[in-house]
Amino acid sequence: MNALPKIAQKLTRHLLGVVLLTGLVLPLAVRAADAPPTGNAVQSVETTTLPGGKIVVRVNLKNPLTAIPAGFTVGNPPRIALDLPDTGNAMGRNTVTANLGPLSSVNVVQAGTRTRLVLNLNKSVEYDARIEGNSLLVALGDIGASAAPVNASPHFAEAAPGAASHSIRDIDFRRGAAGEARIVTTLSDAQAGINIRQQSNGVVVDFIGTELPKALQRRLDVADFGTPVQIIETYTLGDNTRMVIEPKGGWEYSAYQTDNSFIVEVKKSDDSQKKTADGKVKYVGEKLSLNFQNVEVRSVLQVIADFTGLNIIASDTVSGNLTLRLKDVPWDQALDLIMQSKGLDKRQNGNVIWIAPKDELLTKEKLEFEAKAAVTDLEPLSTEYIPLNYMRADEAKDMLYGLASGSSLNNSSSNEVNCSAQAQGLEGVGGTGGQQSTQGNTDQKVLTKRGRATYDLKTNTLIITDTARKIQEVRELLVRLDVPARQVMIEARVVIADSGWSRDLGVKWGAKIVGPDAGTTVLGSKTQINASGTQAGAIGGTFGNIVDLGLQAAAGSLGLSFLNVATGNLLALELTAMEADNRGKVVSNPRVMTTNQKPAVILNGTQIPYITAGTDTTNATVTFKDVFLCLLVDPQILNNDTLIMSVEVQKDTLDPNNSVATAPGVIAPAIATKRVKTQVRVNNGETLVLGGIFDQEEFNDVTKVPFFGDIPGLGNLFKTTSKVDKKTELIIFLTPRILDDRLSLR
User: How far apart are CA 454 and CA 457, in angstroms?
Assistant: First the structure.
């Protein structure tokens, strides 16, 4: 009885072992059964170290290879990949650990009838591949830090043994739209062997077994084309043809082949820009090298998918073969070249790329759009009531119909302000907007063609009838637009500064000479003087002035009289003078607060009556003229807290010096107006000088008696002088301040 449990435990262990063994063996058997038959197979991979530090990877195959396999290289992380066509993996494992110098490991992965040999490196090295019997030898050598990346001097292509000779038909130089140089070499066929490498002074291209006509053996100076390339020299070297490209400055190159055209592109090494000069997108993918001859397009897409780690889906209609040779080309550019050569296009969603012919993609997208439009026409309608907090419901309705926001308000006269003394009044906003006076522009309509919108202003509610999907889009739109309007306080300062100085000098003098006779004349007067010393017909004791150039309103006067008592002769002299120094400043400080994009006005002043005298048939009339200080603004607040404002400032004052008499005893005062109207941009809180006017008046007047006034020294008794220097300056300042709603009191 006690032995039964032990026997059961042993049987259980055996059964578990069989199950585990089956689980390990069956996948291998299934995988071997699923693998398609191939004409060749990789039997083993060996790594050895040669003198000089070179690492050799020996790949032993079942049958010898007919040509060196094509491959590509990667700079980050450094690795080398070689594709063996019609070859399987017969090693029973996929990874061979090496840890020799720059070589970390070797991966052998079979995909269909193709096996990829991937050499994982820990630093950039150059390699050389050759065939030796049934083995493929890949020699790795270290390169300096200043040399090119991995595969610095590879064979771009190999000429098959015993192949027919090739020739170069044409060599052309072109300048690209972004300033890059393109050297296009036209070959007789696509099987010519090409070896390209970078040297210190440029790029060297060797065409193996290729003839060069004498007409093409030349040295081209292309420095005037404005590209990095200066010299292109092509000559025959034995059975081969060599091309030397000499650039200058910082540069980088890439090479690729399409059919029988081999293109070398040299451009400035500037990776900071994402776009070229003509606006095209710059390729920024990781660089790779490809070498394929008459290979299926789907296989090349699989290589790019393995290189990038992206998921590429190729349509069933993607077919055809191509010959492609690329050297150090970004993978996204390589993909575009493949698609352009075969009329393909792509659509990317995340890390999945769908590739199909252009017509197929356009047709599919068109059918999808038509199906969506048909579903929208058949989708049931629903009605939603959306209350708005800050935005007016009528403005929201106009926006949904493709009209300008707030057009119903902007077109009304209540939104027009001016510097008028009369109140303009406010128009009513109405109650319900059930009637649609206009449908706006149907091309800009937010709603569907079956959608309708109305509003109720009493509750500020927007009523929408449309599909559920469109109503949700409208809700999301209103969430962004239904925000409080920003407000701004605008303050203006109108400063008028006056500075005046004047000085007047005058003289007035007269004389009376009594002769021996009973009557004589006053000097300079035609009136007679009696024996009593009085003028005939005049007030007694007075006499006329010989020089009367005195001031009418003098600040001070000085008089001197000289009398000869014995003879009665009299000489009187009066000097008058006035000097004034006037300084004044008038500051007007209007300010007004308004909402963004809403004009506002503030004014202060008085109205002056003007009386127009009547006639025999009409009565006198009275009209009033405005004398105002007015500030008129229309601000627009930008997203960066700057403002664009249309501003008009007007300052009126009475000018009594220029008043006129319209009737006996009626004086009509003049009005001096100072006004500025402009549009400016200013930052929040900054003070801006809108403009200014500077007036200066200088007068130097002399009134004198001819001849006597020109006598030096003595002439001052026969003239009066007046000097005036008056300055007036007007400066208008403007300071806008955006109000922060977060600082308001609750």
Answer: 10
